[in-house]
Amino acid sequence: MRRIVTLVAWLGAGAAAWGAPPDPTWRGDYCDENTDCGWDNACRPTRCQKGATAPADCEKSVPPPGECLCNENMCTLRPTGDTAVTTAGTCTAPADCAIDVATATCHAGGTSLIGPITRQGPVCTCDAKAGTCGFVWSGPVACKSYRDCSYVRLPRLRAVPSKLVPRSHKGKVRPCKDGEIDSVCGEDGFCRIVGWSC
C-alpha cells in the first residue's frame, strides 16, 4: 500500500550516503510552532533557537535581524534582507554550501542535511565565479490547481511556479507510477511538495 511520507524521512536513506553536516548545530532546533522559538540574546539577538532568553535591561541593544519562526519544524531566522557569508573554503556548486537556519547564513565547505522545502524556507546558492555561498528565502508559490505547481531539485528540493519551470509530467502524478514526488496545490492555495513511499 502506498503512503504519503514526510520528505525528510523519505530522503533519510540517501542522507546517510552524503555524510554528516560540518556543524551539527546547523540543523536547527526542533519546533512545532512559532512560540517554541526565541532569540539567543535579549540585547543582541543573532540566533533563532528553541526557547527564549529572559528579558534584560540593556545599556545598548540592537533590533533582531529578522523574524524568529518555526519553519519546516526548525527554529529558523527569516532575515530582513538576504545575507551572504562564507567560512573556510570556496564553493563551485550549491551542493558545496551548508546552511545554518538559525542564523540565516550559508557556509562554504559542506552540506547541511535539513531536507526539502515543503512550502517556504531558506536556500543556499553558489556564485561559482566568486566562490561564495549566498542566502535566499524561497517564498510560498500561489496556485489555483496542480497545473500551476512545479519543482526544482537543486539547490534544494522546493516548489516553483510552472510558468518558471514547466511540469515534468503534464497530468496529475500517479503515485509510484509516474514518480515518487510532486508539487501539488494545497487547500490553502499554495504549492507544496509531497512524496510517496513506493
Protein described:
The chain has helices at residues 7-10, 12-18, and strands at 3-5, 37-39, 48-50, 66-71, 74-79, 97-100, 105-108, 121-127, 132-138, 149-152, 158-161, 181-185, 191-197. The chain is mainly beta. The protein has a domain at 19-38 and 63-138. The longest helix is centred in the N-terminal third of the chain and has 7 residues, at 12-18.
Biggest sheet descriptor: 3 strands, antiparallel
Distance between the termini: 8 Å
Question: Helical percent range?
Answer: under 10%
Count every helix, treating DSSP H or I runs of 4 or more residues as helices: 2
Task: List its traits.
198 residues; mainly beta; 6% helix; disordered N terminus
In brief, what are we looking at here?
This protein has 198 residues and is mainly β. It has two helices and 13 strands; from the N terminus they run βααββββββββββββ.
Question: Which SSEs are present, and which pair or pack?
Answer:
Elements: E1 3-5, H1 7-10, H2 12-18, E2 37-39, E3 48-50, E4 66-71, E5 74-79, E6 97-100, E7 105-108, E8 121-127, E9 132-138, E10 149-152, E11 158-161, E12 181-185, E13 191-197
Antiparallel strand pairs: 1-13, 2-3, 4-5, 6-7, 8-9, 10-11, 12-13
